[in-house]
Structure formats: C-alpha cells, structure tokens
Amino acid sequence: MNLSRRRFIRNIGLGAAGLGLASKKSALASAPVKGDSEKLLVKDPDHPAPAPVGVDRLPLSWHKSAVQRLKDKAATKGVDAIVLEDSWNMTYFTGNFMTKTERPCWVVFPVKEDTIYWYTPGLDNELVKSWWSTEMDYYYDFPHAKGGYPDQGKVVKGQTVDLFEWLLEGFKKRGFAEKTIGFDSEFPPSKMKKLANFLPKAKVVDISPVCVKMRMVKTPEEIALIQRAMNYFSKIHAFGRDYILEKGTQATDFEIAKAAEEFGINLIMQDIKRDGRPHNAVGIKVSIGCRTGRGTAYPHPNQFHHNKVKKGDSLQIAGVVTIGGYGGELYRYYQLAPWDAHREKVWEVVTESVRIQERESKAGVLCMDVAAKVHEFQVKQGPEIQKLLYQRVGHGEGMEGHQPPFIALGDQTVLEEGMTFSVEPGLFDPAHDFGYNPSDNLLVTKKKGVLMGSVPYTKEWMFLKL
Q1: CATH of domain 30-51+217-464
Q2: H-helix or E-strand spanning residue 229
Q3: Phi/psi of residue 407, each to 5°?
Q4: Number of alpha carbons in the 13 Å side-chain half-sphere of residue 395
Q5: How far apart are CA 229 and CA 55, in angstroms?
Q6: How far is CA 303 from CA 194, 307, 424, in A?
Q7: pTM for this structure?
Q8: Helix (H) or strand (E) holding 396
Q9: φ, ψ (nearest 5 deg) of residue 336
Q10: Using CA atoms, how far apart are residues 195 and 192, in angstroms rounded to an integer?
C-alpha cells in the first residue's frame, strides 16, 4: 500500500469518527438478539413438504419438460418455432437466470426439434454456453455496430444494427422464413412491418397467454421450493419480532429492516451449495422492508423509511424471499402499545379478511368472487372502515412478484390447484397516521387456500409492549 492510499484510508476513518460512526460497531444483525418468537411459529399440517437442503433450484430436466409441454400446446396452434423474449418466460422455460437490461435477447425452440437457439448480447456468452444451448448467435453489445466485435479484434464503428432485423435474418438462416412463429408478446406495428419486409411468408402467433398460464399454475417441484423459502422467511420474521422487543425505541425502522435482511441472508446461505460459478445459488432474494408510524398509513408510500420506533406506532415488516426464483411475500403488521379501540377494530377487520381469503380460495371459485367476499365483509363494518379501503385483495405470485390472475373485483379467472397469491386485504388510515397491511403466499387447493407462512395472525404476535 502506497503512502497516499494509507492517508486516504486514515482520513476516511477520522471522518467517520468525527461523525460518531467509527466509535461503535454497526448495530445491525451482527449483534445477536435474544427472544422466543420462533417458538410461536405455527406448525401447519397443510403445508406442502419443502424442498430439502441441497435442492436449491429446479433441475435442468424440469425446464426441458416445461419446454416440451409448451411445444405441445404451441403445436395445437400450428406453431413451428417458439420465440421467447420476455425475461421471466426465458428464465422459467430455460432455467438460465440472466440479467435483463436494455440489451435485447431471444431464445428459439423449433417445435419438432430437440434444439435451443440463443440470440444474445456478448456479455451473456459464457452463461449461455455453460447451461443449455445448441447454438448461439451474439452481437457484441447494445447499440451494436455492424461488424464491430472487439473480442475478435474487430474494432468497427458506425452503422448501428437493428437487432430485431438481425434476429429475423437468423430465422432465415435456420429455415423459418416460411414458418409459423409463436412469439411470447404482441407485436407493435413497427415490428409487424419489419417482419413483413424480411419474412413476408412467415405467420405470427401470440403464445404469451399460454406461457403465462403455465407459469400461473405451479408444479409440485415449484411448490416445494416456495415452501422452503417461506419457512426461512417465517424465521426471519421471528428474528424481526425479537429485534423490535429487544431494541424497542432505540431502533429505527431502517435498522430493523437491515438487521432482518442480514439475518435472513446468513440463515439461507448457510444451506446453499455454491462454488462461485454460474447456475448455482441462483434466484436468491432476501429483500426486507420495515416502516413505522405514519409511513404505514399508505399502501405504496414514496418516502424513505428511516424513523425511530415510537410507542403507539403501527409497524410493518414486509418483503420478499426466494430460492431458485421461488418464494413470495410475507408481511406482518404490528401495533405497539398504547393503542385505542379504533386501531384494535381495524386490526380485527384486517385479520378476519385474511381468514376469509384463506377459506374462499379453493379450486373452481372465481377470483372476483373471493374479492367480493372480502370486500363485502369489510364494507359491512361501517363507514369508518369503508374509507380505509384502497386496494384489491391480492395478486398472483410468481418469479416476477406480481403475476396474473388477481384477487380483484374485475378478474373472472377460475382458481386452479397450484396457483399462488399474495394476501393483502389491508386497511389504511392516513387521518390517524397508521395502517395494517398483511401478506402471505397462499396456495390454492381443492378445499381452501393454504397460507404458506408460519407467522401467526394473532394479537399475541402483533400487539407488542416495549
């Protein structure tokens, strides 16, 4: 280390000390908390068996099977080749977790061939070649200059390549010029014009509804991964509750969130097999949020949450946890003493609304009927509750978070076994600076919805005295 670097690091330390930051260790999850909240977690016999430790993602064989099912469905529409562009469809069907940015990327499956063709930016070359690929065409980066491949020693600037046209040229080379091509998205007029110019004899079929429907109904393997993620998430909530009880009004909502997040990451990663190479330890997400007081009064607040916990606050711990891309939401709404009769009633209405959604979410029922049952109950509680209604009851849960269908008055979708939903019949009271918003991952079964979290919906858990 040279002298200037030593001075730089020393000055950073002095600056932190001057701000009072270097005098004590971070107060986050590195400092363990004591508590018995985990003992209160519910042991639900209806929970599916979780994926065992070591099964950290779906195997490639599962994705190949999903592609075959997609091919079978597409073939009934006369499709000769499937083209996926949507990043969630690409991840779901190929199993290749890639970061999607402004760089276009496509994957192509000829329906009657056991092949997979990629059209990708160069930075994904190694991820593609090391997973599942028959052939790969790549452009250097976006925007791509015609002939510009610095990795091949060709530093060419100038003519910008239209990458959709580049893809269509690839179709010609692979014999799709007069075929029926199934795309997972609708085409705007500009794309249709290019398609007509480059492939005038090709036909286009929109297969996006088929892709979305497959992703909506989870297989047993997907459900097992979701349950494993939700089991971890329940323990994260137990840690968060203990943290609130121990740190109390000395903590901020920001601190609680980051402490719970660090705890969750350490908890999960001790069970994840990984060697630092691509395709393992994929789809892992531990995103925890916390807000206390006034910030809970809005469904989607836009202010940064860095507020001291105060007695009398409503407080929410929320977030998303996934393993191998699977998991979901788990929110709990707390009330810190003291509280009044109004807050207690609002809490009771929210909690019973959760139970209604749980009971009504069985296969064969319409999404809008579940929503109506919840909202009818809420409205019957009187005008003081009606004015706290701001949002639908829930949304479909998938890799991307929100997916169809929706537990909403305008969704006529029929529930099917294997669908999963958020559980969010929350109530929000900006006039009194509080709100209660639950969530869970609800699995639709023949008899009812199963809440996959293990965190109780009880006053014992959520009404706290600091």
Answers
A1: 3.90.230.10
A2: helix 220-247
A3: -85, 85
A4: 11
A5: 12
A6: 44, 11, 21
A7: 0.92
A8: strand 394-398
A9: -95, 135
A10: 5
Q: Are 462 and 332 in contact (CB under 8 A)?
A: yes
Q: Residue 436: CA atoms inside 13 Å, Cβ hemisphere, count?
A: 24
| In contact, 442 and 423? CB cutoff 8 Å | yes
Tens-binned pLDDT, residue by residue, of the chain (466 aa): 343 444 433 443 433 333 333 334 444 544 578 899 999 999 999 999 999 999 999 999 999 999 999 999 999 999 999 999 999 999 999 999 999 999 999 999 999 999 999 999 999 999 999 999 999 999 999 999 999 999 999 999 999 999 999 999 999 999 999 999 999 988 888 999 999 999 999 999 999 999 999 999 999 999 999 999 999 999 999 999 999 999 999 999 999 999 999 999 999 999 999 999 999 999 999 999 999 999 999 999 999 999 999 999 999 999 999 999 999 999 999 999 999 999 999 999 999 999 999 999 999 999 999 999 999 999 999 999 999 999 999 999 999 999 999 999 999 999 999 999 999 999 999 999 999 999 999 999 999 999 999 999 999 999 999 9
State the angle between helix axes of 341-360 and 367-380 in degrees (0 to 180), rounded to the nearest 10.
Answer: 160
Tokens read off for 107: 């994957």
Query: What tokens does 348 get?
Result: 């009771």
CA end-to-end distance (rounded Å), the chain = 49
Q: Cα–Cα distance between 107 and 260 in angstroms, integer?
A: 38
The CATH architecture assigned to 78-206 reads 3-Layer(aba) Sandwich (3.40)
Q: What are the residue ranges spanned by the domains of the chain?
A: 30-51+217-464, 78-206
108, β-bridge pairs: 83, 117
Which two structure tokens, joined as six digits, stand for 8?
Answer: 């730089």
**Residue found under tokens 């701001």:** 390
Q: Is the dihedral of CA 390, 392, 393, 396 positive or negative?
A: negative
- Separation of alpha carbons 5 and 15, rounded Å: 15
